[in-house]
Each structure stands twice: as C-alpha cells, then as structure tokens.
Design goal:
There is one protein chain. The protein is mainly α. The chain contains two helices and no strands. The N and C termini lie far apart (82 Å).
C-alpha cells in the first residue's frame, strides 16, 4: 500500500512532459494564426488578380 501511495505521489509531482506539451500548444497557436492569415491574404491576392484580369 505504501508503494502505491509513493508511486501516486511521484506521478503527481513529475513535470518532465510539461515542456513538450507547452511547445505543442505554442506550435498549434502559431499554425492557427498562419491558417487564418493565409486565408485572408489569399482572398486579397485573388481579388488583385481578378481586377488585373478585368482591366486587361
């Protein structure tokens, strides 16, 4: 019983995977920002080419 308590206590205090999770969250936020920006930039570029095509 004591070994189970000790194991549970060690698992609760272990922070070895915390950095990896934080880096994953940061990468996900950067990817979300890039997708959002690229969709708006893509629409703007499409409008520019449409205007050029209409002028020609």
């Amino acid at each position: 019983m004591n070994s189970a308590k000790a194991l549970l206590k060690n698992l609760m205090s272990d922070e070895s995977g915390q950095d990896l999770i934080e880096y994953g969250l940061i990468a996900a936020l950067i990817a979300l920002a890039c997708v959002t920006l690229m969709s708006s930039v893509g629409k703007s570029i499409g409008n520019v080419f449409t205007n050029i095509n209409n002028d020609l």
